[in-house]
Amino acid sequence: AGAETVRRAVELDVASRFQESLVCYQEGIDLLLQVVKGTARGRAPAGRCVAAALLFLDGKYHKQIKIDENATGFSYEKLFQEYLNEIVTEVWVEDPYIRHLHNFLRFCEMLVKGPCKVKTIHLLTSYDEGNGKAQQISGLEEIKQSLRNHGVTLNVSFSSSIHDREIRFNSGWMIKIGRGLDYFKKPQGRFSIGYCDFDLRPCHETTVDVFHTKHTKKT
User: Fold this and answer.
1) Domain holding 191: CATH number?
2) 3-state SS track over 147-211
3) Residue 204: exposed, middle, or buried by beta-carbon count in 10 A (0-12, 13-18, 19+)?
4) Residue 131 is part of which domain span?
5) Pair 181, 88 in one domain
6) Is the dihedral of CA 144, 147, 151, 156 positive or negative?
7) pLDDT tens-digit map of 114-158
């Protein structure tokens, strides 16, 4: 099964279906490593397959999505759905400007709906300035309590030095959005198209970069 999964990964790789091939490579390697550890007979062929797969994993996976000014069709579901599966149980959000709490709430709702099985969300942000600080803290506390009713823990931390924006899943996927989660434009009114359906909400221009932690090197 492991060797077949790796062969499928190679086919997808050749077809430039890199996201799917990466998933198959990882699943194939896990299966083959089980064989290597469990049986001496499977050690040689499995070892060769693992080595071949690791050649791919040593490369760099990078997907970039360009969102144009006033573009629509970029709801959180559309942006993140291919990276959310049952493996995802923990999420890290680092964004210094979590100010529009309804956007963060929509992101949390997406995680609660599944198909992922998120149990913990970590948020690292900065305090709002002036009078907005108290409202920010109160709103995040309300979101925390609501998530708890769905079996999800929200851990909130504040930093005055955070600048970068990124979202990480414990499955290894890392998404960096230039504008963070607040890339949607303000709706024209409470009863305007796009107020509820974020796929119909115009966006600010921004860039989304997708990486995998196995393809990034820390210095």
Assistant:
1) 3.30.870.30
2) HHCCCCEEEEEECCCCCCCEEEECCCEEEEECCCCCCECCCCCCCCCCCCCHHHCCECCEEEEEE
3) middle
4) 63-212
5) yes
6) negative
7) 888 999 999 999 999 878 899 999 999 999 999 999 999 999 999
* Cβ-contact 75, 199 below 8 angstroms: yes
Q: Which amino acid is at 58?
A: D
Same domain? For 72 and 125 the reply is yes
CATH code for position 26: 1.20.58.80
Q: For residue 115, is the peptide bond before it cis, meaning its omega torsion is within 30 degrees of 0?
A: yes
For residue 197, give both structure tokens. 């359906």
Can you tell me the distance from the alpha carbon of 213 to that of 194, in angstroms, rounded to the nearest whole number?
Answer: 34
Name which residue leads in pLDDT, 62 or 59: 62
Tokens of 140: 């995040």
d(CA 111, CA 22) in angstroms, rounded, equals 22
Q: Quote the pTM value.
A: 0.73
Asked whether 32 and 2 are in contact (CB, 8 A), the reply is yes
Enter the tokens of residue 137.
Answer: 């803290």
Please state, in angstroms and rounded to a whole number, the distance separating the CA atoms of residues 33 and 147: 37
